[in-house]
Write a structure and sequence with these properties.
Length: 297
């Protein structure tokens, strides 16, 4: 089976490395070709265009920045859908609104191919280890066809419902995580007058009910940031958090749902990005908020 990946950012690259490590025949494409180098160095082929990628592959995974990027990669004379789609399967893993996936599915089917949306939960480390959480939306036969591949990337693959269902649950899950960065920063601000060491504070929070799974996963990185150092390598940057929260708010507005906590969190993240930290890892957000709180900004 020939597999393609369109979008070799941090997560796409980690997924690609996992697939090459398992012996898959992999071809990749990215708008900025330099981002394909790590995968090319371990044996992946690099396609000259999305159309060339689709032509070379049976299954194509797309993991792209936003709806505009999806439109650009799938559409046009050099897009994924410019080639004969018969027998091809597209697995769309971007974090976007369900309506984006539903509209795309219609276009993919119109080109004769099969389609599911399957955003994944987990970090780059989880992608490399094959322990992501797959959240699939699509028809039962199409999800069943994708499952053998997805199970090589994920510890668990859930068929949530029709096209767009995966996107919906991914946005909902990410909302709780993204808002946590702000709430933890505010909690730490309350502790400032106590003068406790970073290690002791983190130990106390770890022992409490106020430590969700993301705390355990990113504790070391948050400790690094609270000690005044920059978190490296960047796993998921602050501007990506902002993009995801904005997408959540757009979906909430479309559904008539009020998301006041997410809305205020985005305003806080926007402040931090405007201060020049948008490219930093999101695990720095609590520490950056403490700094801004301390300075009264």
């Amino acid at each position: 089976m020939k597999i393609g990946i369109a979008g070799t950012g941090r997560m796409g690259t980690a997924i690609g490395m996992r697939l090459v490590g398992l012996g898959h025949d992999l071809t990749v494409w990215n708008r900025s070709e330099d981002k394909t180098i790590p995968l090319a160095d371990i044996g992946a082929r690099v396609a000259a265009s999305p159309a060339a990628l689709a032509d070379a592959c049976d299954i194509v995974i797309t993991i792209l920045t936003n709806a505009a990027a999806i439109d650009a990669v799938y559409g046009g004379g050099a897009g994924l859908l410019a080639v004969n789609g018969d027998s091809k399967l597209y697995i769309e893993m971007s974090t976007v609104r369900p309506a984006t996936e539903q509209s795309l599915a219609d276009k993919v089917r119109g080109a004769g191919a099969a389609f599911i949306d399957c955003p994944v939960g987990g970090s780059i480390k989880a992608a490399a280890a094959g322990t992501l959480l797959g959240l699939a939306g699509g028809s039962a036969p199409d999800v069943a066809r994708a499952r053998p591949l997805l199970e090589q990337l994920c510890r668990r693959v859930e068929h949530i419902g029709p096209i767009g269902a995966g996107a919906t649950i991914k946005l909902a899950m990410n909302l709780t995580t993204q808002v946590y960065w702000q709430s933890f920063g505010e909690a730490l601000s309350l502790c400032e007058p106590l003068g406790l060491s970073v290690d002791r504070l983190m130990d106390l929070f770890a022992a409490s009910s106020g430590a969700p799974k993301v705390f355990a996963l990113r504790r070391a990185h948050m400790t690094t940031a609270l000690n005044g150092d920059e978190v490296q390598p960047v796993n998921f940057d602050i501007d990506s958090v902002r993009k995801d929260v904005q997408t959540m708010l757009e979906e909430g507005a479309a559904l008539g749902c009020r998301l006041p906590v997410a809305s205020r969190a985005l305003e806080c993240f926007d402040e931090i990005s405007r201060a020049g930290y948008g490219a930093n890892d999101c695990a720095m957000l609590p520490a950056l908020w403490v700094q801004r709180s301390r300075s009264g900004k």
